[in-house]
TrEMBL record, chain A:
Pfam families: Complex1_51K, NADH_4Fe-4S, SLBB. Keywords: 4Fe-4S, Flavoprotein, FMN, Iron, Iron-sulfur, Metal-binding, NAD, Oxidoreductase, Quinone, Translocase. NDH-1 shuttles electrons from NADH, via FMN and iron-sulfur (Fe-S) centers, to quinones in the respiratory chain. GO terms for molecular function: 4 iron, 4 sulfur cluster binding; FMN binding; metal ion binding; NAD binding; NADH dehydrogenase (ubiquinone) activity; NADH dehydrogenase activity; quinone binding. InterPro entries: ComplexI_51kDa_subunit, NADH-UbQ_OxRdtase_51kDa_CS, NADH-UbQ_OxRdtase_suF, Nuo51_FMN-bd, Nuo51_FMN-bd_sf, Nuop51_4Fe4S-bd, Nuop51_4Fe4S-bd_sf, Soluble_ligand-bd. The keyword Flavoprotein applies. PROSITE patterns: COMPLEX1_51K_2. It is an enzyme of class 7 (translocase). This is NADH-quinone oxidoreductase subunit F. Residues 327-372 form the NADH-ubiquinone oxidoreductase 51kDa subunit iron-sulphur binding domain. It catalyses: a quinone + NADH + 5 H(+)(in) = a quinol + NAD(+) + 4 H(+)(out). The gene is nuoF. Its EC number is 7.1.1.-. Coiled coil: none annotated.
UniProtKB/TrEMBL annotation, chain B:
This is NADH-quinone oxidoreductase. Residues 237-293 form the 4Fe-4S Mo/W bis-MGD-type domain. The lineage of its organism: Bacteria, Bacillati, Actinomycetota, Actinomycetes, Propionibacteriales. Binds 1 [2Fe-2S] cluster per subunit. GO terms for biological process: ATP synthesis coupled electron transport.
Amino acid sequence: MTTLTPVLTDNWGDERAWTLAAYEARGGYQALDKAFAMAPDAVIESVKESGLRGRGGAGFPTGMKWGFIPQDNPKPKYLVVNADESEPGTCKDIPLMMASPHTLVEGVIISSYAIRANKAFIYIRGEVLHVIRRVQRAVEEAYAAGHLGTDIHGSGFDLDVVVHAGAGAYICGEETALLEGLEGRRGQPRLRPPFPAVAGLYASPTVINNVESIASVPSIIANGHHWFSSMGTEKSKGFGIFSLSGHVQTPGQYEAPLGITLRELIELAGGIREGHELKFWTPGGSSTPLLTAEHLDVPLDFEGVGAAGSMLGTRALQIFDDTTCVVRATLRWTEFYKHESCGKCTPCREGTWWLVQVLSALEKGQGSEADLDLLLDQCDNILGRSFCALADGAVSPITSSIKYFRDEYIAHLTGGGCPFDPSRTTAWAGQEVTA
Amino acid sequence: MTTTPEKATDLVSLTIDGIQVSVPKDTLVIRAAEQVGVQIPRFCDHPLLAPVGACRQCLVDVPDAGNGRGFPKPQASCTLPVAEGMVVNTQATSPVADKAQQGIMEFLLINHPLDCPVCDKGGECPLQNQAMTNGRGDSRFSAGGGVKRTFPKPISISPQVLLDRERCIVCQRCTRFAAEIPGDPFIALVERGAQQQIGIAEDAPFLSYFSGNVIQICPVGALTSAEYRFRSRPFDLVSTPGVGEHDSCGAAIRIDHRRGKVMRRLSGEDPEVNEEWITDKDRFAFHYATQADRLTYPQVRDRVEDGGDGSLRPASWPEAFAVAARGLAAAGGVGVLTGGRLTAEDAYAYSKFARVSLGTNDIDFRSRPLSAEEASFLAAEVALRSPGNGGVSYADLETASSVVLAGLEPEDEAGTIFLRLRKAVRARGTRVVAVAPYATRGLSKLSAQVVRTAPGAEAAAIAGLDGVDAGSVILVGERLATVPGALSAAAALARRTGARLAWVPRRAGDRGAVEAGCLPNLLPGGRPVADAQARVDAGTTWGVDHLPDAAGRDADEIVAALVSGELGGLVIGGVDPDDTADPAATRAAIEAASFVVALELRETDVTRAADVVFPVAPVVDKAGTFVTWEGRPRPFEAVFASPGSLPDVRVLAGIAEELDRPLGFRTILEARAEMQEMGPWDGERAGHTAVDAVPAGGDGFALATWKLLVDNGSMQHGDKAYLATGRVAVARLSPAAYDAHGPIVTLTGDRGSVTLPAEPADLDDDVVWVPANSFGNGVLAGLASPGSRVTIAKGDPA
């Protein structure tokens, strides 16, 4: 049985954990001095050795990304923290910034020092105003305490941090669209190459990392990369926050080594809703193909989930029990992607428009079984044909749900509508009182 | 398809559909495929715009990226550069690529309205065509009861350009054009998903001088012109190539006509000149030739002294020729004034007519402020220069280390130069230095370093320029003629630094007129009048023993001589008195002349005062040649064969024959042949007599002015939508002067007053700028001459 490994979440329960005083009381900002005692390249090396892989979903090795920054480029270097957490089901960066913004700020300072950036940006999803305020306040406190600004801790290293609020677009979680937004332009993904490491923000070398990746850095520096790499699996080292939502007894954030299984996590979360069984789940948010009860023992690391035909993604585990109509869930997700498609490329813009129409008809029991093949063909024409990965994510729930629950789709057609009662999936199911 | 001529130094070999091909490094796969004859369907791709990869129509399969590994997904060939050893399979050989393309095409069509039968683009529509070649025959979307996204039908994004958002496939060609090519990013994507559309800011319509290009490059019928909308179907049109007649840039255009009527004009393709872009003036301003006041038959005046009632009456061609010849022969000395609209052949006819038929050198094409210094400069520094022969070309602008602009506002006065300079600035960081009264929007789009110069101080400013070297190009505008010493200073700067020099006139016919000798000091082919050998040389071709050797009068002197009675007759063609240095004097000269022969397209003050009026052909009715500012001949053929619409050549030949001193040709082709036979002068060219600068100064405000691209010029009449895109006439003042006199000012000069809204700009405190022909009868007629002093008073806000 894998146990929880609270590192990032360890202080979340502390009294006023988000304040500088509370953070420093637990040894906060001490990793900074340790990092400053190292050469920047040694910090990069340490992160490389730790095996930390990007926590934003793609799992790219963080240290390697930092190593791509051409240090001989005369332009300024930038660190950009992607805090535009918007993936349906994903809920880890926002609680982290809410509960312990200084963990992120300390990570930003060490990471900037490593890549030799004197300016860092934290791009926070615009809808979460309370979080933006909390991070702004933390940055203010850090400046006042000398953790930010010029000659930090007497190291000679200068860093300014800008907290930037997004304007409400899912696509801005895509790193190049985020850069466009940060530069004040319309948030749409950029053509690559050039890659951000060479020409990112303001056409300068830029590292873009997820909140959790950056927040993991202080612990790696403080405890050493061996400590970090001792956790997790062979190719997916360390720990991560698993956000469990949906039909479990105790939804929430569970920090555990990569490679833990859903069975273990559900157990930690008190099991599936009383009287029900697991039906399907997403391993990493709605953009990752669905899995079912047969995948309960798949190790939740990049390789294990990949082998099961899905992706670890952001470890956003949305749990659905047997009351849930998979067609309905898939339609809701598809509507989300239609709403969030930026419109830049044809397959995503037009494809999501069409997918919603076909799925809506199916949900109402209209159409025929041939429409399932039409749906799959549309998905085939979208997947891998679009400009960025948004559309790939949009078709994941459709293709995977048809793969595992084709019969349920057909039941809608034969039964003339949805065989499920949507109210039974709600948290208040069974509590209705009749007048 | 344009392939930019690049030096093929680094070749890369790849295999496309099993065929080996070598293409220059950095070539995109979509264009490499064209080399093996495979047309990959595309919408957003445009060879002159930066790649965007938005439409995804050009997906191809790449089983080997050149490193032994393939791409797992189909790749957009419009954003993928070639690599050595790359293997590409297009729709021709790869089922994956074919299905990917079919899929994209199906998506593009789901929200596209089926209004092809009434759409302007139907018949020449890339979406329609490629849907036929790369799409499916039926719609699965419609079959499944799909609901299309709809928008209200068109919205205006400018007075000239309409946007039908339903048809738009948001390929971003228009927005990329606007941002990249002219630098007028007034249109942008707004909203998202299927609602994404092209939009403008509420208070900022797409007022670009080059806006019409977006209509042409739109791969669907989303952008249409207010003027052409619903007027014809592409398959009913006949296309004839032509040359822009509105400036000296010589842009290639395509004239689309139907049953004897021009329906629209498009940009032609000429990588050497205008690439694929033209100004809105070249595109939309063609209705001038079909206005109600167009002259269609000769007229002669029944003179009171001959017993008539003094009015003009229709006449036959033979009668008009005879009357004109008789009148000119009796008039004593005759001067010849030609405007800037002449083709080189027509100009040649005027030049020969003056020398051979009238026996005078009193001829001048410069129907605008001029100087003797300019005539000398044109003979010494301009005539006979052409690309490859000491002249500057468009390509030279791109490779120049720096470009100096003096007396020239390219965006207004030479749009094609403006675009080429912008290309150079964007691609190579070419330094542009402008001797100008203030940093105009056009100059800021060229990132120009402005050497702020008050009118009259240009000579000193040019002399004081530094950073000019042998790799530089100096472009001087015709406006410098009014500044004593300015052209001399430019010539001296070029000599001192080794920089190359070119003169950029405003009108299409000006440079050809220099070559044809429509100047008092030049015969055709750059032959100096003052050079006896040159006169003999010209006389030999013309078969005459003697050519007039007396120095001719320039336009101002012809006007003065007519007023004083030294000259009696006047042959005038294409001259608007209000364009001349002194409009009142020109009108007085026409009035004073004992006999006036006018050759005109439309009725004007000149034709109303003339004794014989000949209608002449507009460019669509005749063949001809315009010579660009570079010295590049741009021949074109007649679009229509209109027997009653005769070129100036034919009219002058008719008069000359009646004078018994024939020209020896009657047609454009014959004139052209004689011009070729005569050839350029290979003797010593005239030297330039340098003129010293005169210190400027005085009370009040120095008047800076030039003509905007879209203004009240008579060749822009007839298209309301186009005229509505013109910039509002304002007076520009320094911030201090604006604070003192704004926001509405009344300017008073020696010729009149005008009240205009004012705008602050970075002008000297004693300089005011106004557009030259955007109000009333223009600055020259209604205010003062450029460079002179005007007074400013606070205007009445009412």
